[in-house]
Amino acid sequence: MGSDGLVIRGGQVLDQASSALVEADILVEGDSIAAVGPGIQAPPGARVIDARDRIAVPGLVNCHTHAHNNLLKGVRDNLTLEEARAFGPAIFAGRTPEEQYVSAAIGAVEMVRTGSTAAFDMFTAMPLMTAEGVEAVVRAYADVGLRAVLGPSMNDDLFWRAVPGLLDLLPPDLRRAVGGLAAAPTEALLRIKRDAIRRWDGTAEGRIRMAAAPVVPGECSDDFLAGCVALTRDYGVRLQTHLAETKIQALYGMRRWGKTLVGHLHDVGMIGPHFVGGHGVWLTDDDIRMMGGAGASIAHNPASNLRLGSGIAPIREMLDAGVGVGLGSDGSMSSDNQNMFEAMRFAALVNKVRFPHDPERWLGASAIWEMATTHAARVLGLGDQIGAITPGRKADLVLLRVDSPFLRPMNDALSAFVYAETGADVDSVLIGGRVVLDRGRIVTVDETQLRARAQVAADRLRRGNAEAWALAERLRPFLRAACRACAAQDFPVNRYAATTD
């Protein structure tokens, strides 16, 4: 966008204070909102966007996703998280930087098309993250134009060791196969993270921020966790890790450290205002109080929690305890898409079954909308920059078509956005004042070519990793047995929709 500005004229705007729709224009100067109100005078030379029959809402914020998952939609069904992760070497290993770029870019395009303007992405690579791979993901988000907090996601211990009882069940040949795998060196991983922060944090006109992102605490040494904490202290970046996503993770933490995951992370200095826990399904009441008191946040991913059978996160209790809660889609391998309108609907519905005949404790449309906008912005560390249509905030805006089967008839705006809208009505998207989606057309990258490249990459990876795929298939029944036995053990809380008896 040029220096002459831009005016979005004649539409309805979601008023942050009343949650009602009001007729108003939006004046954008540079990358920010300069004014909101009726009859705004356009500066000479300003571009005018006709928003009649459109609703302007703040861009949605995806608090938890994985760029490497975008080539994997529908790759497997009926797998737990642990079983899905066993296929990691089969579906992630050996990607070229160009394939990492394509995977990140096609996911960013999907987010834009469904109304997201910012995301926290924990992306990974196998067998080891490289500077070239990090650059490819940064370039993908910069090219598409999405605002992003990017955390190269790593661990310096092995997944197989973090599943209680698994190695004891394996026959000798499989035990040798997984036992021969080597963990990545701690200092090398921290060096990659540090270099990525120094090189990329604040690039793409400030749209790209970097973060520290250990994959799962149980798959990290304390030295690695402490090193990630040091990065947040030295560079002021966010830190997100998968936190008690499954009962297996929670029980392994208790076995390894003699306390909950949150308790141990608190000991190593990780729990604080900079900290984001992905999922938090199996947090105890004490965990929740500790996180709330420390000003920490949770990225809630209801679709993948259900898809993987991980459980139902205690979001009502988190909000009551002062935990910051933002909403995420999770990766497309485990939740199938990057659609935050769908994530909002799941979040609103699944909470209600936890409190039968107690609607006072249910999360309604207003709370869910905040988890995808204002609260989500805080989770990304951008609470004063995005998440609302207010002068001074970045011009991250979404225009929805009003005349649609999802938004007509319109009775209550927030209920319509949370329960009825599917993302199909996203017409135009601005990020930092730049038009990224214009009347249904992505204008920053060649979307058709990108989709073709994504299919070529997915097909090549399936062929090229056939041996690792076969190993994962052989391991699956033993992994399932180990996880089933572990899940039957006692834990202070139950987050399943059934007993484990």
Topology (elements, then pairings):
Blueprint: E1 6-14, E2 21-29, E3 32-37, E4 47-50, E5 54-58, E6 60-65, H1 81-86, H2 88-92, H3 97-113, E7 116-123, H4 131-144, E8 147-154, H5 166-169, H6 172-179, H7 186-200, E9 208-214, H8 222-235, E10 238-243, H9 247-257, H10 261-267, E11 275-279, H11 285-294, E12 297-300, H12 302-307, H13 315-320, E13 324-327, H14 332-335, H15 340-352, H16 365-372, H17 374-379, E14 397-401, H18 413-420, E15 426-431, E16 434-438, E17 441-442, H19 447-464, H20 466-487
Parallel strand pairs: 1-4, 1-5, 6-7, 7-8, 8-9, 9-10, 10-11, 11-12, 12-13
Antiparallel strand pairs: 1-2, 2-3, 5-14, 14-15, 15-16, 16-17
Helix pairs in contact: 3-4, 3-19, 4-7, 7-8, 15-16, 15-18, 16-18
What is the CATH topology of the largest domain? TIM Barrel
The main pleated sheet reads as: 9 strands, mixed
CATH homology superfamily of the largest domain: Metal-dependent hydrolases
The strand count comes to: 17
How many domains, in number, for the residues?
A: 2
Alpha-carbon Rg, integer: 22 Å
Output the structural class. alpha/beta
CATH architecture of the largest domain: Alpha-Beta Barrel
Q: Oligomer, anyone?
A: single chain
Ends: how far apart?
60 Å
Give the fraction of residues assigned to helices.
40-55%
* Average pLDDT over all residues: 95
- Spatial shape: globular
Contiguous runs where pLDDT drops below 50 for at least 5 residues? none
CATH classification class of the largest domain = Alpha Beta
